[in-house]
Each structure stands twice: as structure tokens, then as C-alpha cells.
Amino acid sequence: MTIGQFVRVIGVLVVAVAPAVAQQIESKPKADGMIPATYRSYIVFDQRTDAKSPQNRTGKLHDLVTENNLNPVVAVFATKLPTGADDPVAKLVKRLKDVHAAHQADELGAFVIFAALDRDYVADAKADAAAEAVQAWAGSVQPGGVAVGLAKKPDGKEGDALTWGLAPDTTTVIVYNRMKQVKRWDLPADGLTDSAIDAVIAEANGMLKKK
User: Fold this and answer.
1) Where are the alpha helices (DSSP H) in 18-149?
2) Which domains are delineated in the chain?
3) Buried b (16+ CB within 10 A) or exposed e, 134-168
4) What backbone phi and psi angles, to 5 degrees, belong to 42?
5) Residue 9 — pLDDT band, cuts 50, 70, 90?
6) Radius of gyration of the chain (CA)
7) Given 6, 20, 23, 176, which is the most exposed site by the fewest CB atoms within 10 A?
8) Mean pLDDT over the full length of the chain
């Protein structure tokens, strides 16, 4: 049994006993700009700590939003799996890696979640294959301080993707600090251009200067 399969078995047991009311969630980001909810994902790649460290989240279901708490964060949500080490998300992650390295004293958090599974990780039979593809991509990108996760894609019905206002075939980038949104981009699948990446990096650096 792989780590992913074990995680899914445990997750199914948890879901089976969870109260139905847990599915009653807010469907849009909050109007006041506060981050609407936590976001749980299966962590595919985590280079933030040594692989043997108990703090390393690779192979675990984890909430990166809660982990970062009130720290400044750049969150990336892509609703399609990566296509290569030079795809737009890879280009953004490489830039974020440099920003993170330059601002470790500011406790900058950065992560990308591929919200591309048909079902929750614990219930998706294709999750292991998707995780392997993302892991191979991350291995070629070497994201450093940018954690990489995998989660269910937006379906317009329930789940974290709905709570955060994600839409199919998009890439959403949110810069936030103290759990309040600073800037948000909702881009079409081909909208993460070099100029859009420049804008994200500029906003992140500007947020950190004000911190």
C-alpha cells in the first residue's frame, strides 16, 4: 500500500463519520476581503524542511492556510495539472521561490495547489497517478519554499474550491496578509502570462515592504 492509498483509507473513514452539516459552506469569497476558509490538500512536494523532518508535510493531508496563519502569503490555485517544467505555473513558482528565499525573515508563505482531481483525494481512484505527475513536475521545477499540493477541482457544488470562489479552467492567485486579501487574480487557463507573473511578484514584494 502506498502512502497515498493509506491516506485515502483513513480519509474515507473520517468522511464517513463527519456530520452532514460540514458540507454547508459559504459559496463566495467574503465581501470584506478576509480569506474565506481554510484549504486542505494532499501535499505532494515540500522542500521547506528536510525530507526526514517531522515538520515535512509530503504525503500528508494538510491545511497550508492554517499553517501560515497571519503571515503574508502568496497562494496559487491551478485547476489543471501541470504540463512541464516551463509551463506558466512553473515560471511563477520559480519566481516565488526567489521571493521566498529573499524574505524568510518576513515569514512569507507560498504554495500552489492543483485543484484538479475529480473527487477529494481520499476518494479519487486516480489521485495516486495525479500525485505522481505533480511530483515529477515539482522535482523538475525544484520549488524550494513553495509547497505543492493536490485537491479536488471546482464543481460548483461543495468543497474548498467553491468556498474560495475558484472556477473551472482557471488559475487564481491570491496575495494576502493577516488573513486579508491584498490582491487577487482570476485568470483563464492561458492567462498566466509573463506580464501577469510580473504583476504577482511586484504585489508580493510591495506587500512585504509594507509589512
Assistant:
1) 64-68, 88-102, 127-141
2) 3-11+29-210 (3.40.30.10)
3) bbebbeebebbbbbbbbbbbbeeeebbbbbbbbee
4) -90, 120
5) very low
6) 16
7) 20
8) 88
